[in-house]
UniProtKB/TrEMBL annotation:
<dbReference type="InterPro" id="IPR003439">
    <property type="entry name" value="ABC_transporter-like_ATP-bd"/>
</dbReference>
<dbReference type="InterPro" id="IPR003593">
    <property type="entry name" value="AAA+_ATPase"/>
</dbReference>
<keyword id="KW-0067">ATP-binding</keyword>
<dbReference type="InterPro" id="IPR015860">
    <property type="entry name" value="ABC_transpr_TagH-like"/>
</dbReference>
<keyword id="KW-0813">Transport</keyword>
<dbReference type="InterPro" id="IPR027417">
    <property type="entry name" value="P-loop_NTPase"/>
</dbReference>
<comment type="similarity">
    <text>Belongs to the ABC transporter superfamily.</text>
</comment>
<dbReference type="Pfam" id="PF00005">
    <property type="entry name" value="ABC_tran"/>
</dbReference>
<keyword id="KW-0547">Nucleotide-binding</keyword>
<feature type="domain" description="ABC transporter">
    <location>
        <begin position="29"/>
        <end position="250"/>
    </location>
</feature>
<protein>
    <submittedName>
        <fullName>ABC transporter ATP-binding protein</fullName>
    </submittedName>
</protein>
<dbReference type="InterPro" id="IPR050683">
    <property type="entry name" value="Bact_Polysacc_Export_ATP-bd"/>
</dbReference>
<dbReference type="GO" id="GO:0005524">
    <property type="term" value="F:ATP binding"/>
</dbReference>
């Protein structure tokens, strides 16, 4: 059964530090927590994260700059090792971080699909169908035969999303890149993600846009200084996030301690 789970997970980045102590920023909302241990400096980017994601979940991550969304996605993906806690998963994980890993900006959309298909060991017989599906979904038209480097950010988001969702993944992890797409793309993406989770897939999307998360996700967690400050429906999480930005919601939400999403 497809699942991905973090238990009491934490990530500390070791950093070089020579600057003086400037104290906390306004409201102390930005970034993780800087601390010293044995004369070395670290940024605690994730702390005590409990997430148990099961089949059919579409989870959004929301939070200020530096609150830990990208670190959490990379931890879920297994790209970053944990400093504490455990990660277990079953299923094939694919990521869409800023762009598709392995893409060559000098090659056309079509050439990239052919290359990436080989990289992902796609059955060559499937490539024509995948190409047709991507052309249809992205609506790139003649741009499909131009180098991907000539695409706008939103066009690249369309291309990357269409390619990743055409592969047979169980868990999709998507960062801010999705926010570059327009409304039409988000509504097409929503339908595709619905189908993906209906057949048992898991999706985690990080975005600053509550509109994007409302369109793509059914649940959300609010990250704050590397911790889960709130978890619940997307509208409730958005309201909590907005209130916390204006000082109306402080401290971790008690429900955040429940490993459910
Ligand atoms: N390579 C790194 N080395 C040291 N610290 C890092 C590194 N990457 C991230 N951090 C720190 O980890 C914390 C979390 O960063 P992360 O990129 O996960 O946040 P984010 O929520 O994705 O931010 P944003 O919304 O700005 O993209 C921040 O304090 C950041 O300074």
């Amino acid at each position: 059964m497809t699942h991905i789970e973090l238990t009491k997970a934490g990530v500390d980045y070791p950093v070089m530090r020579s600057g003086r102590d400037r104290g906390r920023g306004v409201g102390d909302l930005l970034g993780g927590t800087i601390f010293k241990m044995e004369s070395r400096t670290f940024v605690r980017a994730l702390d005590n994260i409990n997430l148990d994601l099961r089949e059919g979940v579409r989870l959004g991550l929301i939070g200020n700059n530096g609150s830990g969304k990208s670190t959490l996605l990379r931890t879920l993906a297994g790209i970053l090792p944990l400093s504490r806690g455990t990660r277990t998963y079953s299923g094939k994980i694919l990521t869409l971080f800023s762009t598709v890993a392995g893409i060559d900006l000098r090659l056309t959309g079509l050439e990239n699909v052919q290359r990436l298909a080989a990289l992902h060991q796609l059955d060559p017989k499937r490539i024509p169908d995948v190409v047709e599906d991507i052309v249809d979904f992205t609506e790139l038209g003649d741009f499909f035969d131009l180098p991907v480097g000539t695409y706008s950010a939103g066009m690249r988001a369309r291309f990357g999303f269409a390619f990743m969702t055409a592969l047979e993944a169980d868990i999709l992890l998507i960062d801010e890149v999705i926010g570059a797409g327009d409304k039409r793309f988000h509504s097409k993406a929503e339908k595709r993600l619905e189908t993906f989770t209906a057949s048992g897939g898991i999706i985690v999307v990080a975005s600053h846009s509550t509109a994007v998360l409302s369109a793509l996700c059914t649940r959300a967690v609010v990250m704050r200084k590397g911790r889960i400050a709130f978890r619940g429906s997307v509208p409730k999480a958005s309201a909590f996030f907005t209130a916390s930005e204006t000082g109306g919601a402080t401290g971790d939400d008690p429900s955040a301690e429940q490993p459910a999403a």
